[in-house]
Structures
1.
Amino acid sequence: MNKKQIEDFKKRTVRKPKLVWDVLTNKENIQVDQLADDYKFYLDQAKTEREAVAVTTKKAEASGFENIEDSGNSSGKYYRVFRNKCIALAVVGKNPLSAGARIIAAHIDSPRLDLKQNPLYQEVDLAFFKTHYYGGIRKYQWMATPLALHGKIIKADGSSMDFVIGEDETDPVFTVSDLLPHLAAKVQSEKKLSEAFEGEKLNVLIGSHPLGGEEVEDRFKLSVLQFFYEKYGLVEEDFTCAEIEVVPAAKARDIGLDRSMIGAYGQDDRICAFSALHAILGIDKPESWAMAFFFDKEEIGSDGNTGAKSHFVENFVSDLLAKTGEDDTDRNLRRALLNSMAISADVNGALDPDYQEVHEKRNAARLGYGVCITKFSGSGGKYGSSDAGAEYLGTIRKIFNDNHIVWQTGELGKVDEGGGGTIAKFLAVYGMEIVDCGPALLSMHSPFEISSKADLFMVCKAYRAFFSTE
């Protein structure tokens, strides 16, 4: 071969990842910014799984989706909220549901701090809340940073109330104090990172003004109780029947002088949840049924009645079969799930320029290079992974290529270096085809994760193509 022939051969046979910014049109660049603004607003409104469900429900209803429980519903677009912590949406397809659906499943919970059931105490004339961290956090990242409280409380009379403190500019914020470096040598600096910061010491500082004089016992604790009683009518026992989440108080922001990135809490996995919602809201009468599931509890193993291990999928699909006049027997339900194709919509860890040694660069996802197809997750020899088959990867590849989707492949770190799990394995038990597919993030699982606006645009486009293409 001569030089030109070699170059032509190379162009035809060698795969070179594409930077999304290099292929966007002027019109698409405008759409990128508009989509990013919508996404940032969504992030600020949906910092907890309950809030994400509420936002999703509102958007779904505005787009013509109706509650599956409503009698006489014939819109062809259905949703179901379960326990106020997970939600599913479905659009009726031209093909029967028993022939299979196109499913995208994301999770709407994120790592955080949860208040314990008896959280309030005082120590050295300061008032605190005790917490138990939720999901995989690096404890030191949650110290010396502004925090907000998002709560659901059931009162003694059975009534419920929600509250948010720390998100409005006029609100106070809260924090977990850290030790000054002058005194940290023995208790922190000389220890391993996993031992230096104790989960039991992630106590949220909430007050220092006493109620009454020195003769009053627990007057700093009482001052906090006075606030909650006067503002919300709460007493201390109400905290035992509550879910109060401690999350970063910062709002989603553009990152970089070029505003090409987004920094925010909870992008794992709300960037996928937002993209899946955006995709299904734009679908009307697809060939195959389109479904989007938004689960809770992924960050702690998908257990519980609102996680992907629950029977939420079967219950919803079974009721859809009945609603649309199909046989809703167990056999037909199993056939519908078996014939489905799914995407486990979850993020991957982007190649970090300062820590490249923990990645295998040839198989690491990169920020700005589009939606990442993650064939397998798991750890220690792919343990805990569903590991997608070659045939299904070929199907996804064709959908993406035919629809001009910029995509890449990736794995979460070097072999035996890390790894992680997703909800894919819990849907795979139905026999459906499934693969992990979502954008890559920097600073993943931190209180301020980083995504690319270009990747967000391409993920939304990819999910729409998955729903629409036969």
2.
Amino acid sequence: MAKWFEEAVFYHMYPLGMTGAPKHHDASDAVTHRFPELEGWLPHIASLGCTAIYIGPLFESTSHGYDTKDYKLVDRRLGDNADFVHFVKTAHEMGIRIVVDGVFNHTGREFFAFQDIQKNRQNSPYCSWYKGINFGWDSPYHDGFGYEAWRNCFELANLNYWEGSVRQYILDVIRFWIDTFDIDGIRLDCADCLDFSFLQDIRRCVDEKKQDFWLMGEVIHGDYSRYVTPDKLNSVTNYELHKGLYSGHNDHNYFEIAHSIRRQFDSNGGIYRGLRLYSFVDNHDVDRIASKLNVPGHIYPVYTLLFTLPGIPSIYYGSEWGIQGRKIGGNDDPLRPAVHLEEALKNVPDPALLSWIKTLGRIRAEQCSLVDGRYQELLLTNRQYAFARLLGEEGVIVAVNNDDKNASLSIRLPIPCSSCTDLVHGDVLTPDGGFLHITLAPNESFLAAIR
């Protein structure tokens, strides 16, 4: 039986942005209760077929949320700890799991250990908590000492996990969030910067608390299978597929997507076969999918592939109705806009897209082969692509067309088939000599159950 996170469809919330919270705040700012606004999104999220939420960052911070000030407080721009307890409880009552952002590679400069070093210098007991502390040179902030910073962003000081007290502190934080808020998982920010032995410590820690606790890591490059192992993480971000999903459409090149999937998940030699990687078409760090595509209509087959190829699909807030957003220089704010849900749903840029994603969510929930089925490629050209997800004696056939004209396809059935049902329109289809003959309009998708 699949675990909850293997069957999940995720909804990604960046709460500081979507609620329009202030960009910065300090210790004198009062708590502002924005979690009731976030709870208002839950019925909409459920209507998409989403069964889990990745939300964050949530730790008390100074600006964008990744400069942690206090790991045991919810950011006061969003509310207090009691607010988040209520949010998680409400989501759980609706059958929605909650996964939070674990920002453990670095802290902000207002974190207590860093401030103690500023105050007590060499006499601070926390000098060993950070990488590269050096009183022989100065930081760009003129602290009178230097330190290793994440990607040379000196508002983010890298923690030193070779120091046992740092590990124990963060593990205590994780236990606190499970005990206090009843969270179901953690997405580890910058997981590719964390030591493997620390990932193993986290795995042991969470397994003692919840046997079905999900650990997912942000990993951009490299061999994902080094991270996804029984003693470390359950999943990582599939940036390779993310890139293929938009560029494969922009270049009218389904070979790129098919090559990635074959390399990753093919049952005969796929390097990640059996793993459940986290699939996405956009997030809080990359341009919105509606802004990345050269042909707006390609967004439909993009989402079809997101929901039907191997992986755990995720939707970034607002992208389900076609929100635009591009980085401006190094500024991520355009990717993280404030959205008033009720008003947004009255003026949806692409209502057909919203409807299509709901259809995909329904089909995925109904068809077990889209979760557990093995992948088999059936047809491939630059502009048309068909494959099956097969589970035992049944499965789903998926076909997409990125052309600007109709495409007539003859798809060889991957298994003997006595029944073939169009999952979008409900029509019963008749195979012809082991083939299924269909015609797809520009940017149209086809999904059929076979058994």
3.
Amino acid sequence: MGDGGEMTAGAERGLGERIVRELYRDPDYIDDPILGEYVQSIWQPLLRAARARGELPPELDERFAWEILLGRDGSVNAFALPGGYLGLHLGLIGVVASRDELASVLAHELTHVTQRHISRLMTQQSRQTPWLIGAMILAALAASKNPEMANAAVMGGQAIAAQNQLNFSRDMEREADRIGYGVMTQAGFDSRGFVTMFEKLQQASRLTDNGSFPYLRSHPLTTERIADMQTRQALEGRAAAVAEPVMEHAMLAARARVLSYPGVDLLRAWVAEPEATGFARLSASRQAAILYAAALAAERLREGRKAATLANRLLTLTGDNPAASRQARLLAAEIALSAGDLARAAGLLNSASPSSPLGRPELLILAQARTRSGQPAQAVDLLQTWVSTHPRDAAAWQALAVAYRAQDQTLRAIRAEGEVQMSVYDFGGAVDRFKAARVVMGKGNLGPADHIEASIIDTRLRLAESLLREQALQR
């Protein structure tokens, strides 16, 4: 089943890059370090398990991106794109009850990629050029949120045709279930997550379709698929019930719900929920989720004092749970940074675990706090090390550009801004920034370190121009 048809891995990656260039520009795209890190903590074990099982051939492993893009959309949806890119809506993170349920969705989508389902579907549509197919995919994704957006993306009703053409066949869905199940369990996740996620989707499919579950339209459930997963689980001797969500997951699901564009009325309802009758009788995980949502909602409403108070209650509640306590500290630091309490933001992160390296969320919050408190050199030290090992981290490059400007290092700041554009495949924007850096270089007065930076800028400019030419030829 893994034959990719006529499309090469390189061509599929190129098509995927064209699509994600547009998704990076979508207002719904969000690079949330906290949720992104959490999703990666599930995604990376799945990739390792796929490699160990032989499901991920070396050619695909090397050529494909294996990136997940998060969208603010509150609908329950996830989708695989050509070239190893996946999309994940915050609405899905907000409704899953455990890491295992989220792992089941990601394992299923990963298998669509490793088994070359996307390439095979495109081969079936060989009368269309790959780039037209890319436009149709974008239109189909837009139609899942707003039909009018689809009309802007593609003409002549092709969005509906694309949706029908790109839906995976029943055989492909069954294969993604079967192999995804094996990948998920080998990665150490509980197989009950696959079954309970199916049960959740099945329940939703019985309700009137109001557009909140687009995942059901692109991945229609059948009784055969559900029965197959239940049988596999029964053969393992596992009960059908799933344990109460762990505290960390409950908190981050709450974060996803708050960040997925809720209305002001809902934010206010969340802020009031910790004071409701019966709150004290809830489980610790449920209390943590409610306090997390309330604190973040208060911050979104610019009620800084209320947000800080709720965050402190959450810190107390999670004190005995290391994973949950870390998430509470990150939220409290985020709230403190938003309120301008830079010392508290830095203190919360520095006191966490002095001997262990900073995670990406800590790094970005701490770098902002250092820059804004007049210590940009410390921010630069943190960020330079990070981008040397994570060269496509747009948020880190942007924070580094701000820190450089605070030090009046204009040349380095402009180069960092160029790297931001390179990270999101905006090669035209990158060329513009690198050329702006050349203007600064032309004014002279460069020190020894600046000459090294100038050489790097020249190299990056040539690469950006080459990629821009390739991009133009694809249109």
